[in-house]
Amino acid sequence: MQLKSGANGTAITEFILLGLVETPELWPVVFVLFLFAYLVTVGGNLSILAAILAEPKLHTPMYFFLGNLSVLDVGCISVTVPSVLTRLLSHKHTISYGACLTQLFFFHLLVGVDCFLLTTMAYDRFLAICQPLTYGIRMSQTVQRILVAVCWACAFTNALTHTVAISTLNFCGPNVINHFYCDLPQLFQLSCSSTQLNELLLFAVGFVMAGTPMALTVTSYAHVAAAVLRIRSAEGRKKAFSTCGSHLTVVAIFYGSGIFNYMRLGSAKLSGKDKAIGIFNTVINPMLNPIIYSLRNTDVQGALWRMLRGVRPLA
């Protein structure tokens, strides 16, 4: 444990990340699995992005947001997995205090944008299905860019707030993090100063920054469901639901894992369940998104197939 002296006494300068497993014999298995997940996630999301850019048919608001979501998924997994792979190769499990806070900031920034973007996609489906006559005006290219910019601004504010708040805590005792990346619950456990205000801040900001988007998403899809049920044609209902099914699946996984992870701060000891939820947040969610959207979307499937075959898309 490296220590430094400061005005508030002795503080640590680095943390030790135990990773997923502490048995060295299992490290090669973890390395292969994480490397496979990383390559699948990056390859899948970049393929969807390339298909959207190359296919004129996909130059619509829904696919504009999906392309942004693909970029975010690549960023989310890149914040944590490459560092895990590096530590497994070098057998060095330390991370500096500054690098830990940097990882914390970018993780919450990208996950926050992901959260707000999912809400924006729900609003887009609401306008397309419930108000189709004014959809083109209300979801113009200018509006699309403004919505994405607002997503980034809100997420940046949220990430910066938590990073600055955690930097005010003192870390002068144990420096072992029973996880594979730096996050708020694990750092709260190691602080030798009171974290009550930080936890209250997390709940308060989380209620506004996560609760509001979730409420808007549920409201949007409640209106969508009501509108779809009014469609007399069974084929029309099926087509309308198919455009929303993929997004609803992603939303359910995203909010389910996030709520379980951050609503357990009062537990005295962080367990292996937290590592499992961490895998969901950082690896499985970004990896599943391209699979879910490509499997349930014939337009994306067709664009990917034409791109793989080298067929020029029709204008």
Q: Can you put this structure into words, describing what you see?
A:
The model is unreliable at 5-10 (pLDDT under 50). By secondary structure, the chain is mostly helical. Helix 2 (61-90) packs antiparallel against helix 3 and helix 8 (234-262) packs antiparallel against helix 9 (272-295). 73% of the residues lie in helices and 5% in strands. Strand 1 and strand 2 (9-12) form a beta hairpin. The strands form two sheets. The protein has a three-stranded mixed β-sheet. Strands 1-2 form a two-stranded antiparallel ribbon.
| Global structural class | mainly alpha
What percentage of residues falls in helices of 4 or more residues? over 70%
- The Cα radius of gyration reads 21 Å
Distance between the termini: 61 Å
| Beta-strand content | 5-15%
Number of helices: 10
Could you state the order of secondary-structure elements as H and E? EEEHHEHHHEHHHHH
Q: Largest sheet, if any? A: 3 strands, mixed
Principal-axis shape equals globular
**Spatial order of the strands in the main sheet?**
4-3-5
* Poorly predicted parts: 5-10
Averaging pLDDT over every residue, what do you get?
85
Number of strands: 5
